[in-house]
Write a structure and sequence with these properties.
- This protein has about 130 residues and is α+β, with helices and mostly antiparallel strands.
- It has three helices and nine strands.
- Strands 2, 3, 6, 8 and 9 form a five-stranded antiparallel sheet that branches. A four-stranded antiparallel sheet has the order 1-7-4-5.
- The longest helix is centred in the first third of the chain and has 10 residues.
- The protein is globular.
Amino acid sequence: MSLYQVTGFRVLNGSNARVYRLRVMKYENFKKENEDGINSLEGGTGDDPIDEAGDHRNQYDRYSAPFLRIGKDSWLWSEAMEMKTFVIAMAKRADFVVDFGALAEGLGEIETQEFVLVNTSAIRSASARC
């Protein structure tokens, strides 16, 4: 039996003036990216596409874990959508499911893996460990 499981999350943006771009990342990648910059992660070349606003979204997508978005605000969707990131505006809700068993493939019985929910919008203001 696996210690890892499929887990559902409901995120509410309770701020009154912030929009967040959230994604799930391995903690080790998140920590390295914060210390040394996104190009320090394996495969980062510094030549990766960045849009005119300085958005590193394409680079972050390589290190983001996939999840299923299942709903928003006051309803659940009829079909889940696989994503690596989503935007949540003020006073909005997002429902999503992460399969930690699939993300932890290859780990031994006593090994663990930490993941974080990261805000990668242009103005960073939050991250939370999952």
